[in-house]
Here is the input.
Amino acid sequence: MKKPIKVFIADDHPVLRSGIRSLFAPFPEYTVAGEADNGLTALREIANLKPDIVIMDITMPDLDGIVATKRVMEEFPETKVIILSMHADVFHAIDAFRAGAMAYVLKDSATDELLKAVAKVSSGSKYASPAVSEELFNDFVDIIKKDQSQDPFDSLSAREKEILKLIADGSTSKMIADKLFISVSTVKSHRNNIMKKLKVNDMANLIKIAIKKGMVKPD
Here is the structure.
């Protein structure tokens, strides 16, 4: 017979601890191994009991849940932490996941949501209450967008792209000036701006970029 998953509860509210304990009572696949009402006691008990999952409150005396989670990850990396919090803002959730938590569940969620989080975490997956998961996802997408380096080519104006294509085609500054009805000095000014934007120092690399972007065909 498979050993039940050992759950530890760390929360400074005895009524809540009692409620969580009773939540697992009907399920033989789980056993509540112990509980604590502050962060320091939680760490001591976790060291003794070696639970599989810790349900951790954020706001606790002596040591808050975020710091306690970091300590658990450092000292008992096999233990999985679920943060149970009253804070619905994404900042607390991000702090929790950065600390190493596998799930972030709101205290005002339905009781079956905590069971769902425990099941997810037991299988190695992460979980966040729907109230914060969408905001977490949106923030993640924003971070990805910010982190992605913008292609310098996109910063070129339509005129600069036109001149780059003519340069890559082999046109001289005089030929480009005549074709576009502008002065040679204006062409040179555009060329310097193009090179600065594309961060190249010679014509060979400038032409390579034009070829890469499909503006001209390689010889």
About this structure: The first strand starts at residue 5 and ends at 10. The chain is about 55% helix and 15% strand.
